[in-house]
């Protein structure tokens, strides 16, 4: 398959587009790993607060167990052409200890408040250290739009 008409966006445009997608998208693929059991990948709802990705999962889920053992994670928005990949370390918050503003923003966005459910949930916060974004082959070079936690200018 050949895709035509793809141009290379300037870095500032790519950063802006990435931030807009993070604010607008609902789902993210979360990749975790356990030292003994290997990789695990699952889609979760997420909230971008302008600095970090917030997700929530069952406290006993594989994802929750993995981030407690190995906090390094990779996240991917679900589009194989307009790619956005994030990498960072997960910080875990049991539902009773999550910052109220984050939990309320999550509940407002999705119409679901895990704190009101039976069972325990774990909120996961990831402040990206690296973000890569590209649309097709013309943008592979220069695809890093965040390095060491700072957006590239």
Automatic annotation (TrEMBL):
Signal peptide: none annotated. Pfam families: PNPOx_N. Transmembrane segments: none annotated. GO terms for cellular component: cytosol. GO terms for molecular function: coenzyme F420 binding; oxidoreductase activity, acting on the CH-CH group of donors. Keywords: Oxidoreductase. InterPro entries: F420H2_bilvrd_red/Heme_oxyg (IPR052019), Pyridox_Oxase_N (IPR011576), Split_barrel_FMN-bd (IPR012349). The keyword Oxidoreductase applies. Residues 19-134 form the Pyridoxamine 5'-phosphate oxidase N-terminal domain. PANTHER family: HEME OXYGENASE HI_0854-RELATED (PTHR35176), PYRIDOXAMINE 5'-PHOSPHATE OXIDASE-RELATED FMN-BINDING (PTHR35176:SF4). This is Pyridoxamine 5'-phosphate oxidase. It comes from Streptomyces mangrovisoli.
């Amino acid at each position: 398959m050949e895709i035509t008409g793809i141009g290379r966006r300037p870095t500032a445009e790519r950063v802006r587009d990435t931030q807009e997608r993070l604010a607008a998208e609902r789902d993210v693929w979360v990749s975790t790993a356990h030292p003994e059991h290997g990789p695990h990948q699952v889609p979760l709802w997420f909230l971008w607060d302008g600095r970090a990705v917030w997700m929530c999962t069952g406290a006993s889920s594989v994802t929750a167990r993995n981030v407690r053992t190995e906090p390094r994670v990779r996240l991917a928005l679900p589009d194989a052409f307009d790619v956005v990949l994030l990498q960072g370390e997960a910080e875990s918050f049991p539902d009773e200890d999550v910052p109220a503003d984050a939990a309320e923003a999550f509940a407002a966005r999705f119409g679901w408040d895990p704190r009101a459910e039976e069972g325990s949930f774990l909120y996961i916060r990831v402040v990206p250290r690296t973000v890569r974004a590209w649309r097709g082959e013309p943008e592979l070079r220069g695809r890093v739009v965040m390095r060491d936690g700072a957006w590239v200018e």
